[in-house]
Design goal:
By secondary structure, the chain is of the alpha/beta class. The protein is 28% helix and 27% strand. The chain is built from nine helices and 15 strands. Helix 4 crosses helix 5 (181-192). The protein is globular.
Length: 338
């Protein structure tokens, strides 16, 4: 009888735990309809459960990126990305809460950061699902807010300069939008690889370029970069402006333009004997691990210009849509554990 009773108690506890998990809720910014920043609502949402190959992260901070606002506006709906009610957000840092049966890389309690797939999202919430292929251990020498600023933007910079442009020591790179999220990481990655860095930014953001120790800082509001620059090996275009159209002539023959915004004109590229590529970044834990090495070696540091509570995500989106933010804006979701 005792054994039967114990079994029954164990079964009851399991059933109750499963029921509680199924009914668990969390706070999140939820999008029920596409539109402006105001469509995001701070409300209760079902807490996700990790599948066998996934991990559940207790989110401490989530960064804001331009792509967040594009998804919120419905720009990706034509690609089949309409899973409303949706939780957007693709950069997170936090603590592993739970792992799926086949997820072996991390354990509960690990401090991690992740670049979540744009097709899935979920970062603007107290808990988020991540895959091991999107996640790495958080750099030890930065806090959760700084860590959340890294994944998407720094991965984009790495994949642009290292994977696509094959940037090497001794080469010269021109970064358009050097004070933004991707641009500020690109400068540091290029410097760490021994390249000479030229970067453009507005008058108000020249101090950041100096802080990042660029070799040549250009104020695009007062100076035409094409009058100051020639024969660069790589142009990284991080802005939506006429800068791309004016860049073909400053790249040496055999060089490359990588744009994360508009598509390079292949006719112009051919005319100048250069390559042109539009890069769409993708999550890669191996890249995150390389970024961690740079951060822990003191060769790269995220630039966080503002931290806001999760409930103020709409304010963050209003700022990100100006396309003139300094570094990254981060949403603080939870207080960091001791």
């Amino acid at each position: 009888m005792k054994r039967t009773f114990v079994c029954c108690v164990g079964l009851t506890i399991t059933v109750i735990a499963a029921a509680q998990a199924a009914n668990a809720v969390m706070k999140a910014m939820v999008v029920h309809e596409f539109g402006g920043p105001e469509v995001m609502k701070y409300e209760d949402a079902p807490r996700p459960e990790p599948k066998d190959d996934e991990i559940l992260v207790r989110v401490m901070a989530a960064a804001v990126n331009p792509v967040d606002s594009y998804v919120r506006q419905g720009m990706f709906a034509k690609r089949g990305m309409d899973n409303r009610p949706a939780i957007i957000g693709y950069d997170i840092s936090g603590v592993v809460e739970k792992t799926g049966a086949n997820a072996k890389k991390f354990k509960a309690g690990d401090k991690v950061y992740s670049y979540l797939s744009v097709m899935r999202g979920g970062g603007y919430a107290e808990f988020a699902i991540a895959k091991e292929s999107e996640t790495a251990l958080k750099p030890k020498n930065i806090n959760f807010e700084e860590a959340a600023a890294v994944p998407l933007a720094a991965t984009t910079a790495w994949q642009s300069l290292v994977d696509e442009a094959k940037l090497n020591a001794g080469q010269t790179v021109l970064v358009h939008g050097g004070s933004g999220g991707v641009g500020s990481f690109a400068i540091q990655i290029a410097k760490a690889r021994g390249a000479k860095v030229i970067a453009t930014a507005s008058t108000a953001h020249q101090d950041l370029l100096k802080q990042l120790q660029v070799d040549q800082a250009i104020d695009y509001t007062t100076t035409k970069f094409e009058d100051m620059v020639k024969d660069v090996d790589v142009v990284l275009n991080c802005v939506r402006a006429e800068a791309l159209a004016r860049s073909y002539g400053v790249v040496k023959k055999g060089g490359i333009i990588v744009s994360i915004t508009d598509e390079p004109d292949q006719t112009e590229c051919a005319k100048h004997g250069i390559r042109g590529s539009r890069l769409g970044a993708h999550p890669d834990a191996n890249v995150l691990e390389e970024l961690t090495k740079l951060i822990e070696a003191g060769k790269m540091k995220p630039i966080v210009s503002q931290t806001l509570p999760l409930a103020d995500a709409s304010k963050a989106h209003q700022q990100i849509e100006t396309h003139h933010t300094l570094g990254k804006i981060v949403l603080k979701v939870k207080e960091a554990p001791n």
